[in-house]
Amino acid sequence: MFFQQAIDRKLEQWIQEIRESADLPLRLRLWNGDQYELGRFEQPRVTLTVREASALPLLLSPTLNNLGEAYVQEKIDLDGKLADIINVSYSLASAAAVSSGNALARVVRHFAHTKEGDRESIQYHYDVSNDFYKLWLDQNMVYSCAYFENGDETLDEAQLKKIDHILTKIRLQPGQTLLDIGCGWGALVLRAAQKYGARCLGVTLSQNQYELATERVRAAGLQDQIEIRIQDYRDLTGQFDRITSVGMFEHVGRKNLPGYFRRMHDLLADGGVAMNHGITSSDTAGGESSMGGGDFIDRYVFPQGELPHISLALSAAQDGGLEALDVESLRRHYARTLEHWAERFETNGETIRAMVGEKKYRIWRVYLAGCAHAFDADEISIFQTVLQKAGKSATSIPWSRRYIYA
């Protein structure tokens, strides 16, 4: 009885503190039927149901990690429109941090990134199943930031424009050799061979991606132009006229970035052009997203992922022997991409739940929508960087950026 009374007092104090620091459109419903409105003026748009008493410690310290943990473990339910759920979760975590006097700190992580460990991390994330990704990606299964040239494109149109945007930026020409590091399900190399006449090598560490990409190359009759391999970029040899790396360097590790770019330098032919397209931290120290979001992603979605600030990425590229010729932010493009993915995920929610189970369904549901919010709020960003070997005349691309849009 005394323990329950102490919990009740702590919960009431917490609710009062949240009400005073934020006006949240949130209804809190406990397992015993008690309900509380956390908004002073706004009507509830989200209902947070605490299904068992063991969830209270997570709720009373509502970092994004704790809320995500409680949701994934089915200790709480969140009902309402997905965008409202994510907005309320961020606001709740922020309000709790302010009321407790805790700084919204960003944690800087470092991992060993051995070849075996990286392969396990990649396979954990990408080998859920190809059918799973087909339910919410575009028709070409491009799992990276799309490019909304005008802002009103469909996801299919924007993903194709993204690939063309990259291949135009690096001035890919017929007969040139192209290496795609982290080739996914093969969309970029297929486009590079079909439209631009390039000879391509795509490498991945995902068995599922390798099998489907190989099947797609065969179906397109492009075996003479495209090779797909399961291979670590550190084991590659040879030289290539063009190199692309799209959504891959997030897995490299900050300490390993100079070596990553040095490997790209060694694989790039003299006079060649490379493109690095990757997610970055908005924190100059390289901290993950604030309020515990990075902890949740590392545990459940992207093991050993590390995001550098763009300044560190550019510094590492120079240390690795590559000069940045062009840098473009696509942050709002990724927010829009993730909104499309989250909407498709919601539309196919019951099919996905039946396919992967309740836990994985919940993980990916909050991950996709949460990342859309993080990009929109400048918690994280993304940049495309065109590179050439350092110490050379800058003749790899034209004088102005007009060629990209011609």
UniProtKB/TrEMBL annotation:
Coiled coil: none annotated. The keyword Disulfide bond does not apply. Keywords: Lipid metabolism, Methyltransferase, S-adenosyl-L-methionine, Transferase. One of its GO terms (molecular function) is methyltransferase activity. GO terms for biological process: lipid metabolic process; methylation. CDD domains: AdoMet_MTases (cd02440). Residues 16-94 form the DUF7884 domain. The active site is at 371. Pfam families: CMAS (PF02353), DUF7884 (PF25371). InterPro entries: CFA/CMAS (IPR050723), CMAS (IPR003333), DUF7884 (IPR057206), SAM-dependent_MTases_sf (IPR029063). Belongs to the CFA/CMAS family. This is DUF7884 domain-containing protein. It comes from Ralstonia holmesii.
